[in-house]
Every structure is written in structure tokens, then in C-alpha cells.
Design a protein that fits this description.
By secondary structure, this protein is α+β, with helices and mostly antiparallel strands. The protein has 15 helices and 16 strands. The protein is elongated and about 90 Å long. It binds adenosine-5'-triphosphate (ATP) and magnesium ion. Magnesium ion binds next to loops. Adenosine-5'-triphosphate binds next to β6, β10, β11 and α11.
Length: 420
């Protein structure tokens, strides 16, 4: 039997209520902030990610699923959501529309990584994008949305918001020099990636996951000491707004984020519950992105959360989420009543109940056993007698009591007694 490709995971019906709860919560929370959904293709021209993600990133350097299609075009499965949204924003003329532009996405993304707990080759993200607003209120709104989303999932108490500013082009250049100064004596002992980062983008060294490199990043200079006046004011206002909104954070100068297009605000929500891949959500401001894609310069801020990591965290806190179980099982004693059971089930569904009935031609006893396994609370039993009388026996599985109810009144009867 052919097996699933490495680094992929089946999402099975038994867990559906969990990931659907994450998706529902994402949609509902985004809506509260006026963000509307956007869907873009699963694949794009490779060039989009080279430009929009950046060629000093791990994603572009080693993680992309890239292939030539039958027309000889270089195509890449999206490794993240922002580049596609930015392309769609420009290509559909939305830059000329009302600002800010606010959109969210629920997507699968693809990265050729070494699979581990919380690190897959196909994974899922909830992300939000806010374009056109340069003020720190926009950064705050994105973080408030992210924070509320995590609270709604029951992860408010087990996640930490880590906040940093990586400045703008001008102050970051001075910082990059200071970092080179700091790493120069050690660079020979650091990993090959870091040696390349040293020349191309030394900030990315701070993001290295290699233990051997981490010991040299611990006492590296902090960007916060190099921020220009405007960047400092932006960061101070953001921190003040978060404090006033009651959102706790810690300033963590190690947070630089993996993508090249960030500027000023960067943030991550991390948790201790899920092992080494601790970041469940990351984001920040990327004012340079649209310009880098040859579009009109447009300020931008956003984030993306990894749904598999959220699910791991939710399982670790024993989420209070419960699955909605079927309300009713309609059991039939013989062929004629089983068929009537199907039709009765259909009527009850029309009245908003979750209903199952026998499709396996099981004995009555086996139907009860199955109904119990499904977790239903009421079994409606029909046989020849009930068909003649136009009423059924409704059994409460939890109390082992039963009552006779007319076919037409069953839905109301169950809805009434469900309240107790
Ligand atoms: P990491 O440092 O863990 O590699 P990243 O900086 O590459 O993360 P982003 O590109 O910012 O991650 O993606 C946003 C979020 O998507 C991450 O915080 C994480 O929760 C999730 N994510 C990223 N890569 C993977 C993956 N390979 N498998 C599962 N989730 C992932
Ligand atoms: Mg990564």
C-alpha cells in the first residue's frame, strides 16, 4: 500500500471538531476586526517568492517545492501566505481602493523541512494582512487580533507575546555593522548558514536554531540600542497601546523573524507546552514588501499562526472544546421500520437535530450498542406496532426511561427535554 509522503499528516474525522474550532475561531475573530477572507492559488510563479520572501531566507534557500510545469514555467507551492496576498492586492487594483486593506487567510503551505513534532512539509496557517497603515495603531490592531484569537482557543495563559523592533533600513544598517563586529571573531566556529548570513544579512544569525551558534548570539548587541528616533517612537507607542489594552508582552531582542521583508515591529507568541518548535504565531511589519515586488510602496503589517502547533498546544492544555454529538438515533426493528427510520431521521434533521439511523441492517440490540458508541442521548425505536400507531418509543439512554411520542412531535419533544 502506498504511504503518505514524509512530513505530511492526515487530518482525520475524529479530530475534525478541533481543527474546525480553530478555523471557526479564526474566522469569527478576524471578522470582529473587519478582516475579510482572501483566497489565492496554492502555487505561484517561483519569482514571486524569490522577491516577496527574500533570497537570504531559509524558505527560499532550501525549503521551496519548486518544479517546471508542462509549459516549462517555474512554479512553486506556496511556502507562506503573504506573498500571494500582496500579489493579489496589487494585481486586482486594490491599492487604489479604500485603505486600510484588511484580509485574512486559512491556507495550507509547503516547505521542504526536516519533519519533527510541530514541523511538517505540508502545514496549515491562519494569517492576517493589514496594508496601507503606517501608524503604530495598525501594529497594535494586528497584535490584538492575534492575542484575542489565542485567548479564544484557551491558549491565553500558556502563550507569551515576545516583541521587538528591528528598525528601518537606515538604523538597521548601523546595527548590522555592529553585529558583524560582534560575530567576526567567532564566525569561523559558526555554521555554514551563519557564515553566509554574516555577509548577506547578519540579523538572521540571531534566528539560527543551531546550539553551536546560539552561544554567540546570547550576548550580541541589541537592535533596541540602535533604533532611530522615529523607529523608537513607533515602538514606544505600540508598547503603550498594548499595555493600555491589557495585553502582556516581553521585549525580546532575539526575535528577528525568518523573512527578509520585515521592518520595525516583529513579534512571536510562544509556548512551553509543545517542545522545540515553540512559536505558534509570528508576525510584524513589512513596509518594504510591496516596493520590493515593484508595486507602489505601501506600509504593511500582519501575522501567521501555525495551526498544527496550535492544536498540539490545545491538546496539552486539555482544551475545553467538545464535539457536538448526534442528538438522536432512530432504530428500526425490521426492514419496513428501518426504511421508515431513514425518513423520520430526515424529518428530524430538517428541524435542526443531528440524527443517525441504521444503514447496516443491524439487530435492535446492536443498534443500541452503536448508538451508545456514538454518544447519542435519545434512541427513537420504531417497529411494526409503532408504524401502525404513528408513534415511536423514545428512550433516554442516560436515565433508561422511555416515552411514547407521536412521529410529528418527536423533534419538539427532544428539544424540550434536551434542556434538562
Ligand atoms: P520556524 O522558526 O519555526 O521555522 P518560521 O519563522 O519559519 O518558523 P513563519 O514563516 O513565520 O515561521 O510561519 C508562521 C508560523 O507558521 C510559525 O510560527 C509556525 O507556527 C508555523 N510554521 C512554520 N513552518 C512550519 C512547519 N514547517 N510546520 C508547521 N508549522 C510551521
Ligand atoms: Mg522556518
Amino acid at each position: 500500500m502506498i504511504q503518505i509522503p514524509k512530513g505530511c499528516k492526515d487530518m482525520l474525522p475524529a479530530d475534525a471538531y478541533l481543527w474546525q474550532a480553530v478555523e471557526d475561531t479564526a474566522r469569527e475573530t478576524a471578522q470582529l476586526y473587519g478582516f475579510k477572507e482572501i483566497r489565492t492559488p496554492v502555487f505561484e510563479h517561483t519569482e514571486l517568492f524569490l522577491r516577496g520572501v527574500g533570497d537570504t531566507t531559509d524558505i527560499v534557500n532550501k525549503e521551496m517545492y519548486t518544479f517546471l510545469d508542462k509549459g516549462g514555467r517555474s512554479i512553486t507551492l506556496r511556502p507562506e501566505g503573504t506573498a500571494g496576498v500582496a500579489r493579489a492586492f496589487v494585481e486586482n487594483g486594490l491599492q487604489g481602493g479604500a485603505m486600510p486593506f484588511k484580509a485574512y487567510y486559512l491556507i495550507s503551505a509547503f516547505r521542504y523541512e526536516r519533519p519533527q513534532a510541530g514541523r511538517l512539509r505540508e502545514f496549515h496557517q491562519f494569517g492576517a494582512e493589514l496594508y496601507g497603515a503606517a501608524a503604530p495603531t495598525a501594529d497594535a490592531e494586528a497584535i490584538l487580533l492575534a492575542s484575542r484569537f489565542l485567548r479564544e482557543l484557551g491558549l491565553g495563559d500558556v502563550t507569551t507575546l515576545r516583541l521587538n523592533s528591528i528598525g528601518c533600513k537606515s538604523c538597521r544598517a548601523r546595527y548590522a555593522e555592529a553585529l558583524r563586529e560582534h560575530f567576526r571573531p567567532h564566525i569561523g566556529e559558526m555554521c555554514e548558514d551563519c557564515r553566509e548570513r554574516f555577509t548577506k544579512n547578519p540579523l538572521r544569525i540571531l534566528d539560527c536554531k543551531n546550539e553551536g551558534c546560539k552561544k554567540f548570539t546570547a550576548d550580541a548587541p541589541s537592535m533596541l540600542d540602535y533604533l532611530c528616533e522615529d523607529c523608537r517612537a513607533h515602538f514606544e507607542t505600540l508598547k503603550q497601546l498594548l499595555t493600555q489594552a491589557g495585553v502582556a508582552y516581553i521585549v525580546d531582542p532575539r526575535i528577528v523573524r525568518g523573512l527578509d521583508y520585515y521592518s520595525r515591529t516583529v513579534f512571536e507568541f510562544t509556548t512551553d507546552l509543545i517542545g522545540a518548535q515553540a512559536t505558534v504565531l509570528g508576525g510584524g511589519r513589512y513596509d518594504g514588501l510591496l516596493e520590493q515586488m515593484d508595486a507602489k510602496p505601501t506600509p504593511a503589517v500582519g501575522f501567521a499562526a501555525g495551526i498544527e502547533r496550535l492544536l498540539l498546544a490545545m491538546q496539552a492544555v486539555e482544551t475545553p472544546l467538545v464535539e457536538r454529538l448526534p442528538d438522536v438515533y432512530v432504530a428500526g426493528m425490521d426492514t419496513a421500520s428501518r426504511q421508515r427510520a431513514l425518513l423520520l431521521a430526515e424529518e428530524l434533521r430538517g428541524q435542526g437535530l443531528i440524527v443517525e439511523c441504521d444503514l447496516m441492517e443491524r439487530s435492535l440490540k446492536a443498534q443500541f450498542k452503536y448508538a451508545d458508541k456514538l454518544g447519542v442521548r435519545y434512541v427513537v425505536v420504531i417497529g411494526e406496532n409503532e408504524l401502525n400507531m404513528g408513534e415511536a418509543e423514545v428512550k433516554h439512554l442516560s436515565t433508561s426511561t422511555a416515552e411514547r411520542v407521536k412521529f410529528g412531535e418527536i423533534a419538539q419533544y427532544i428539544k424540550n427535554s434536551r434542556r434538562f
